[in-house]
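Lab notebook, design round three. We kept the backbone fixed and only want residue identities now. Task for the bench partner: fill in a sequence for the structure below.
Input structure tokens:
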């Protein structure tokens, strides 16, 4: 049970940063896709 408690505390700490990281990766992916689309039409 101690192991589960450690994992739970780790994930609760990580979740604070996970949202920002997911948004950052989504912005990067959208930017890359938009860049490919724009350059393919030019």
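Proposed sequence:
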């Amino acid at each position: 049970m101690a192991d589960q408690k450690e994992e739970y505390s780790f994930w609760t700490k990580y979740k604070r940063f996970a949202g920002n990281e997911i948004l950052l990766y989504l912005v990067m992916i959208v930017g890359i896709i938009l860049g490919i689309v724009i350059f393919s039409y030019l």
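Keep this in mind before ordering anything: The helical segments are 2-41.
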